[in-house]
């Protein structure tokens, strides 16, 4: 019998495009590690804000980043980043972090700190006996895993995305974040060539998942129905 392949699924898209919900379901269905890289940028932002290091003070930022120790622990199938042994708290979804995260994420030193860590999640998945990983973010299919087995890019109308955030009870300037994330020099948010582009505006979550799952199932049988 052929060994089960180890697969990497990259899901990129703007804020509230449907990445998180769909990647969680896919992780469950195909027995993959779920990696939400936006939460890593949020966690570093929160950490740096607490230390009073602004994104514009490069020497202080580099010194602070150099001292951080990043580890991973699993909660179910989700990778949780530990910064100096501490997991992220609810503050990573606060209005302040929503407002600041794109500014920190635009700094190459911040991205460089997370680059190797994110790629290392493939080893974490293997160590835990999972069949691969599904990683969501902005530059996964373009920079982190350009050779991923499946690369998806999700987008939706800004009005629909604002409604989704409001339903989650979050105050989030998604249009402004997308503008900064798409126009930055370092690894901007973009649909990489060859990725499958899905407009989720008029699709239900089940429909979005079904499209992606049908493609993944050509390589890896689902672990659950
Ligand atoms: O997915 P999210 O909205 O929680 O991401 C928060 C921010 O993190 C987003 O505005 C930009 C940044 N980010 C990034 O630059 N690259 C990634 N791979 C993931 C997130």
Strand order of the largest sheet: 2-5-1-6-7
Instruction: Please give the number of β-strands.
Output: 7
Annotated CATH topology = Rossmann fold
Sheet of most strands:
5 strands, parallel
Radius of gyration, taken over Cα atoms and rounded to an integer in Å? 17 Å
Beta percentage is: 15-25%
* Global structural class: alpha/beta
CATH H-level homologous superfamily name: P-loop containing nucleotide triphosphate hydrolases
Q: Could you estimate the helical fraction of the residues in percent?
A: 40-55%
Instruction: Tell me the CATH architecture.
Output: 3-Layer(aba) Sandwich
What is the level 1 CATH name? Alpha Beta
The tally of helices reads: 10
Calculate the mean pLDDT score and round it. Answer: 93
Distance between the termini: 22 Å
Our count of domains comes out at: 1
Secondary-structure element sequence?
EHEHHEEHHHEHEHHEH
> Based on CA inertia axes, which overall geometry fits?
globular
Ranges where pLDDT stays below 50 over 5 or more residues in a row are none
Provide the list of bound ligands, each named once. 2'-deoxycytidine-5'-monophosphate
Which structural traits does this protein have?
225 residues, 17% strand, Rossmann fold, 7 strands, binds 2'-deoxycytidine-5'-monophosphate
Q: Can you put this structure into words, describing what you see?
A:
The chain is an alpha/beta fold. The chain has a single domain, classed as Rossmann fold (3-Layer(aba) Sandwich), CATH 3.40.50.300. 46% of the residues lie in helices and 17% in strands. The protein is built from 10 helices and 7 strands. Strands 2-5-1-6-7 form a 5-stranded parallel sheet, with helices on both faces. Strand 3 and strand 4 form a beta hairpin. Helix 2 crosses helix 5. The chain is globular, with a radius of gyration of 17 Å. 2'-deoxycytidine-5'-monophosphate (DC) binds next to helix 2, helix 4 and helix 9.
């Amino acid at each position: 019998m052929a060994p089960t392949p180890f697969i990497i699924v990259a899901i990129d898209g703007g804020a509230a495009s449907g990445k998180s919900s769909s990647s969680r379901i896919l992780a469950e269905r195909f027995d993959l590690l779920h990696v939400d890289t936006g939460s890593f940028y949020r966690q570093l932002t929160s950490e740096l804000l607490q230390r009073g290091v602004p994104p514009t003070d490069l020497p202080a930022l580099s010194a602070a980043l150099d001292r951080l120790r990043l580890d991973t622990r699993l909660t179910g199938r989700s990778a949780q980043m530990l910064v100096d042994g501490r997991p992220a708290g609810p503050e990573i979804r606060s209005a302040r972090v929503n407002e600041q995260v794109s500014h920190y994420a635009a700094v190459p030193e911040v991205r460089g700190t997370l680059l190797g860590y994110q790629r290392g999640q493939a080893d974490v998945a293997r160590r835990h006996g999972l069949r691969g990983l599904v990683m969501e973010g902005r530059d996964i299919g373009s920079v982190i895993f350009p050779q991923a087995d499946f690369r998806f890019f999700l987008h939706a109308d800004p009005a629909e995305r604002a409604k989704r955030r409001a339903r989650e009870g979050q105050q989030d300037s998604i249009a402004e974040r997308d503008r900064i994330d798409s126009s930055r020099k370092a690894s901007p948010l973009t649909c990489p060539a060859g990725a499958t582009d899905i407009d989720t505006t008029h699709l239900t979550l089940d429909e979005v998942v079904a499209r992606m799952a049908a493609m993944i199932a050509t390589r890896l049988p689902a672990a659950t129905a």
